[in-house]
Give the backbone structure.
Amino acid sequence: MTRPHNESALVATATILLTTIVVGASQQAPPSPPAGTPATIPAAIVAAAEKIANDPQVTALIKAQSTDAAAKARWNQFLELVRIPSPPRYEHLKAAEIHRRLVNDWGFSPEEVMTRAAGVIAGSDTNLVDGLPVYNACVVIKGSYAGRADAQQYMGQFPKVLVEGHIDVVNPEELPKSGDPSIRIKLQPYAQPVVATPEELAAIPDELSFDARGRVVEDDKYATASKVFADAKEAEAGGGVRIYVPGYGDMMPSTSNAFVLAAAMKRHHIKPVYDIWVCGTAGEEGKGNLAGVKQLYGFDQKAGTGSNPLNIVANFGLEGGGIVNFVGSYRFEMKFKAPFARPNGPSAPAAMAAAIAKIAEVKTPTDLQDGAPKTTYTVGRASCEPPQAPGMGVPSCTLEVDMRSTRKETLDVIRRAIEPTFQAGVSAENARHGRKDGSDEGIRLELMWYGLRPAFVADSVDNAAVHAGLQAGIQLGAISSPMVGTGSGSLNDNVPAHTGVPTYQFSLASSAAGAGGHAFWEWGTRGAPATEVSRMHRVLTAALIVAGFHTADGTVVQPSVGPNGKRTREVVR
Amino acid sequence: MTRLISLLAFVVVAVAGTPAFAQQSGGLRVEFQGPGGHSYGSYGRVSALHAAARAVILIQKALPSGSYQITNLTGGNSVNAIASDGLIELKLTAGSATAYQALVTAVTKAATEGAAAENAFRGVKTGDLTSGAPATIRSSVTQF
């Protein structure tokens, strides 16, 4: 396992920063961090990137994806998948459609589909997360390694490389109880202002149509939505539209194209050495609690360790980033219970309001000082049970809060600021009615759920995934130097990184413009298809550098990483 | 059972103590709308739930005890998203139509001030935009 770099120095730095915050803002902010840290890429990786990127099988795949017909197929597939609602922990509709297409449309056999409708992966020791099944959708590109006489394995699992993008989306927050669950994809000219309310969004008259099989209808609205632009300015001038649909930005275009790439690898007989799994992962958003990658990496939340039961040796995330440090988060769901729910006694909604109002006044290091470790919180969702009878009080209310920071030390600081407000809200409401905490008629607090994204601070930018991701980009002209950003992200990658598995991120999407992520007004406008293709070329090259590749000339590019994946706990079956 | 009997007795006394012809009651929906956004990436935007909670505290200060009952407080759509919507539902009870209207006015004022406090805390004002969308919390009150 890779341990955080120079922990004592980190603690000292955090302490200094927080002390600075406490004593006042008169002191100067620390100097801006460098733009990046250079990786040292081995010569073998440079050679592998050149060989793979120019391999005739790979270039044939890329050429096939460069046609107008292929661009249209990718676009249509995205539109057809993004309209399937997929709230975190309720991704089964989208997973089912991906499973169906894998076998019926994309050329895979049922045996190559590694996930099951019930949310199970054979070989994982973590098929339930937070007590619920995990609706990942994964397919394998079989490698040759298992046929070697000297092949190594872990608990029956040969090494594999994971390429993943999440399939869950923040909105809608739950599946509809009945009727057609499909999301309406609204189209709005740029000349009109961005919608300000859900009602304005619903009132937009133009929308895409789909037939009974879920295929997009190629009418005039489709033609308008399908126009390609370089940026928002060009879209506005050229008759482009905002395409409103949850998941446009976060992150279905990239995930959908991951399956396009998988199908193309199958079609073009791309043969890696290690298996490559391409996954649409569940539970990246909201209360998903990173369920998808926790299943894949056997991450035990209580222990804070990952068993890596599938023996994954490298991870590639498709949500973008190109980073090696990961923001940790604590998430709480608290219930405020009113034992007797009297209309004139301590009130559950009032107690919850008191807690929220206290949280709303919290300032984090980010609010107080430039250059402090980014530290955030939000009261994401609140709800109350209705009174059980007219004239009665509210039985209970529930509150969900998210806290994040790039550093565990500052994350713990914000937790210490916010966690007590839950009880403080209860106490304030009880006191308002002359009740003591814990009394029969007082409001009580109950922890319903606790979510954890493990933070990770890398001690080095040099690992197999980073090298492959960077050098593939350099080889193909996407980047010019092997620089790794100093920023931190909050991604599925938190789990493999924390488990010790090297990880890197890029994107397979191409959007001209977009905004409103995680909000009801999430929208995007189609970007250049050629960008998608060049990104597919990079991801394919990077994955094959790490997994190894049987080239068209009969030689084998050997895997750049050994066959034993890292883990922080042994599998117990 | 003892508590249930006590509760029923209280309700009977409360109803009997107020002349039916003078009393007026009704429901209010106090809604808050904001831009929402990613809890981390969009941190610093205003929260409709924060505004709603601020308004509840102001309502408690402004309205006489027993004149209102909060029957719902809800909003937001995900733990990792800034709440773009917030809703308070209340039942109001007053001794006359005039007094009732005064309660509605007080709640409306509290809602406006709750939204204003949240906007001020995050330093946004009417007309500001965030990624093209209105940056502020707006409130509205409707009777039902």
